[in-house]
Design brief:
The protein is an alpha+beta fold and 103 residues long. It is 22% helix and 51% strand. It has one domain: Beta-lactamase Inhibitory Protein, Chain:B, domain 1, CATH 3.30.1450.
């Protein structure tokens, strides 16, 4: 059994995290998009997003120290059963999917 303070802290943390989730994939009808998928494939499987936001550029370095600028975009889909899905693309590839009730 845990102490009341520890239990309440854990419960509060779980409640705060429950409204926001990270994933490496998202289901679009019967298709699945996953990290690494190109924007064209996501568009084909999921259709046009409700919004597309250009976030800027990031600089990445490869194993040999060469740097490259990648374009960063965020696409929004939803609501689906009250959830919105935010897809982050870096260099035209799906990097991350966040899901939330609303933003």
């Amino acid at each position: 059994m845990c102490k009341p303070i520890k239990c309440s802290s854990l419960l509060i943390s779980l409640i705060l995290l429950s409204g926001y989730a990270h994933a490496a994939s998202m289901r679009c009808s019967s298709a699945l998009v996953t990290s690494g998928d190109p924007t064209s494939e996501v568009l084909q499987k999921c259709g046009e997003p409700i919004s597309r936001d250009f976030l800027g550029y990031i600089e990445v370095r490869d194993a040999w120290g060469y740097s490259q600028e990648l374009e960063v975009e965020e696409w929004s889909y939803g609501p689906t059963n009250g959830m919105y899905h935010y897809l982050r693309f870096e260099g035209g590839r799906l990097k991350r999917v966040k899901s939330a009730r609303r933003r």
